[in-house]
Predict the 3D structure of the following.
Amino acid sequence: MPKISVLTPTIRPKGLERVMESLEKQTFQDFELLVEVGLPYKGCDLSASLNRMVKRSKGELIVMLQDYIEINYQGLERFWKRHEEYPKTLMTGPKGVTKNLKSCGEVYYTNELAWDWRTQGILHEIQPLQWEADWASAPRQAFFDVGGYDEEYDMGWSWENAEIAIRIAKAGYNFMVDPENIAIGWNHNDFEPHPFNFPGNLNSHRFDETQRKLAGGLYKLNYL
């Protein structure tokens, strides 16, 4: 039984090359990799895909790793050590995004990275809404304690990550950021356009809808 299950859903599989190269170099090799490739013509099913992967997973710790992301060679090891220190805690790590340039259809790379807020400070607690699951970890049991992702959010795009974090917090889990567990995200929109995240798309990142559900006492689902 692997200690870690790495979950990588993708609708743009060209980015899996970055993921595979990073995983091959990891100091911590007691993991399995689960990948689901979505078909854009079938519509957005990210939440359903994540639920399927969680059900198939065998690791004690889930690591969320999106496509087009390169992680530090000690990335999995750091998440595992943090899990041993803080067993009921969901972690996230900082990501620097490449500033790519396009010319005549070709993509060129710069050495400059745009870093997000997670590089600030030392290991510290964060709010559930700050748990960004592009490069993150969570105890596998946390997903089962709340019944998985809300698949109604597949009617649009985004916010499903924050919604499940709120429910997991209600189930008694904590959230932290480890500023030293860094990753590099390639600006994947320069390589392959996102099929769902565009102006006018029915977007499910509605905070008011999440608040309405939680006010009604709905914090445990039954997808898992």
Summary: The CA atoms of residues 12 and 194 lie 8 Å apart.
